[in-house]
Each structure stands twice: as C-alpha cells, then as structure tokens.
Write a sequence for this structure.
C-alpha cells in the first residue's frame, strides 16, 4: 500500500501489484463516487493476480484514506485529473482501465485527454454508459436531496434495491432500514461533495475516438442507470467494442458477482 502525496492536505492512497507473467496486463480500477478500493482487492484482485495479471486500485481524494484540502473543489474534472495522476505516477505496464459507473467516465476521459508514458491496451466500462438528460439529472438531484436529509444511510436504504440483484439484496437486507436513524451531510463533508461531483460530469464523450479494445459490461438488473438503447447507441459508436450482459447482476456488479466478474476480465485480457 502506497501514498501519492501532494502536500500535507492532499494525497491519494493506492495499492499496486505488477503482473507476474509475460502475458499479464495491469487492471487499473476506478471507483464510483462513494466507492472504496477494497471492493477490487479481495476476491477479484486475488483471482486476477493468481492468473498472472497486475492490479492497481486507489481511492480518489475525498474518499477513505485519501485526504483533500479544503481549497480543492471536488468535481468531475478534478477526479479525472486524479485518475491521470495515479496512472502517470505508477506507469503500470499494459494497463487495462476498469471503471465502475461514473468511475469509467473518469478513466476514459483521462485517456482521451492524453496520458504521458502510460501504455493503455484496453478499457472496461462497468455499467458506465448513459445519456445525460432530465432523467439522469433528476437521479443526481434526488441523491443529493437524500444525503441532505439523511446522509449516505438514507440514500442507500432507498436506492439499494435499484442497484443490486435480488439474491444480493436478500443477503444484506438486515443491514439496511435499521432503527439507527440518519445523519444529514453538508458541504463540509467529503461524501456530500463527492456525490455532488456527479452533477458536473460531461457524458457527451467522443466515443468514436476510443479505438482500443473496449468491453462494455452491463448488469441487466440495474433499475436505476441502465437504459438499453443508450448503452447500445454508445457501444456502436466505438470502433472496437464488444458487450457482455449479465442477467444475474445489477449496477454494483463487481460486488454482486465478484468471481464471474474476475473471470470476464481474465477472458478479456487473453484477447489483448
């Protein structure tokens, strides 16, 4: 485990394991807004490393163990810049970018903006592709209203059935809708500002310029962000993209189906 430190108030926590085989790639994982590197480092990371691949995961500034100064604005541009900073600092060999949800947007935007001395050989969008518009803006605003009233606990209580599959819901249900009560978040809280960053994202990407091998991985039980036509339209605009749809998963696919997710990544790397 390492730290990319900028100053006393700003640093990025990351953990890196290089590939152990000549054919190995380095899977670089990008969190969603309130995510944590730990999701990637358990069963998923172990399986990839056992197959000879490398892994690099990190927490954006503002997420756990990655402090951010009060003078730094958390927004999509800053999180994209953090993505580039980590990649250019570590310089992982044969990088495959893997982003969950909006994390995939930050990853590919960093690549589109230009990375110095970083060899990226592939990209995996995990429930990333979507169209901006009134519906997405309403979702963003609704999430912000939730945390203003009851913090992340209220947001998760309300949205968890929409972003996970039913089998997963049954295993975690007892941890939600408890009697513990809620605590509102304010702009003084990093989680508040991380969520607000979702409203600053530009989803109108130059998909035609993404000419490397791309895997579009979709959990079809995602009842919040998944719109088939939007995913299909954006996939078709990329010259070297393929799709895998998982009927037994939803938006939080890596957490719901870690073994299957790792298997899909290993198969994708074999074709690079």
């Amino acid at each position: 485990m390492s730290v990319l430190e900028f100053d006393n108030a700003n640093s990025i926590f990351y953990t890196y394991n290089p590939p152990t085989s000549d054919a190995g790639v380095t899977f670089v994982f990008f969190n969603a807004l309130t995510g944590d590197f730990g999701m990637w480092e358990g069963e998923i990371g172990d399986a990839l490393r056992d197959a000879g691949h490398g892994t690099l995961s990190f927490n954006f500034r503002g997420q756990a163990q990655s402090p951010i100064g009060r003078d730094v604005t958390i927004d999509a541009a800053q999180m994209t810049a953090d993505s580039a900073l980590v990649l250019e600092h570590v310089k992982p060999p044969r990088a495959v970018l893997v982003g969950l949800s909006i994390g995939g947007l930050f990853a590919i935007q960093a690549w589109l903006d230009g990375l110095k001395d970083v060899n990226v050989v592939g990209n995996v969008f995990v429930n990333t592709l979507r169209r901006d518009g009134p519906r997405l803006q309403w979702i963003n605003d609704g999430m912000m209203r939730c945390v203003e009233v009851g913090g992340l606990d209220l947001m998760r209580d309300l949205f968890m059935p929409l972003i996970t599959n039913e089998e997963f819901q049954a295993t975690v249900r007892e941890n939600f809708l408890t009697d513990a009560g809620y605590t509102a978040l304010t702009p003084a809280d990093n989680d508040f500002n991380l969520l607000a960053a979702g409203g600053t994202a530009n989803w109108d990407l130059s998909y035609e310029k993404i000419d490397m091998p791309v895997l579009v991985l979709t959990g079809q039980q995602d009842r919040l962000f998944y719109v088939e036509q939007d995913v299909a339209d954006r996939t078709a605009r990329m010259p070297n993209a393929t799709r895998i749809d998982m009927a037994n998963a939803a938006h939080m696919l890596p957490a719901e189906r870690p073994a299957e997710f790792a298997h899909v990544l290993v198969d994708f790397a074999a074709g690079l």
